[in-house]
Structure formats: C-alpha cells, structure tokens
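For anyone still unconvinced, we reproduce a single protein record, the chain in one-letter code, the fold tokenised, and leave readers to judge:
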Amino acid sequence: MVNTVPASPRGGPTPVEGFIASQPESARFLLGLCRDYLHRTAPGVSEALKWGVPTFMMERNVFYLNPKGDHVVLGFVAGAQMLEFRGVFDHVATEVAHVLVRTAADLERAGLREAVRAAAGFSTSERDFGAALSTKAELAGRSPRDDGDRLLA
C-alpha cells in the first residue's frame, strides 16, 4: 500500500502520529486505518491535533477521529447537514455525524467513500481528485499542500 499520509517537515513524528502512538494497540490499528482512508479518499486533506483528537481539514474542519474503547469514531463535523448520506452514519447529532469503525470492513460500507468525498468538497462523481484539489487550491490562491505545511511547521 502506498503511504498517503504527509510526513512531518521536521522529520520527527507529527502531532497526529504522536497521538496515535500514545493509544492502546487496538486503537492504534484502527486510527491508522481511518487516517490512511481519509488521506486516500480525500487527497490533500491536512491534519492537526485539535480538541485532543486528530482532526482533518480542507480549508475548514471536516473530519475527526476519536478512539472509544473497542472502536474509533470517524466524525463528520457538518455531517448532520448531509441529508443524502444519513443512511451511512451510525449516529447523527445536531451538527455532527458519526461512523463507528470497529474493523477495516467498516470502512468499506456502502456510501462511505462518497460521503467522505462530498464532505471534503469533491463532487462524488469526480474521478480526478488531484485535479479537483489543484483547482480548489488555485481558487484559494495557494498550493494544495499549504495548509498541511503550515499546520505541521
């Protein structure tokens, strides 16, 4: 598998890597799976440790990962507004929505990939995510990697 997770510009572990390393083994495995899944499914997503958990951004906070005992909560920050994906989520609150990840198979559930792409601002029918990301970054006047570099510096 190709590593899609950005490396720290300083060469050491990123804050998110440090968080994952500090978790129990079962949580580390699931957190790593979810982190890689988000980077593969939403290329260009940046990450930081916010509110004590890994948070993933595309110009704004979009996803977070929260380990909870036997599972990891894959949170969609504005998931409650994603009406067309309600059936994908295990829980919908006032603003957020959650997918509970207990195994790798939970990341293969029908509609999850499309929900992640939609939340990140990609058209669910787009195939060339790199081009879409470059276009979004150019419109914002920055390179696709700017946010991640600034957050990890």
Remarks:
- Residues 126-153 have pLDDT under 50 and may be disordered.
- The helical segments are 15-21, 25-41, 112-119, 129-140, 146-152.
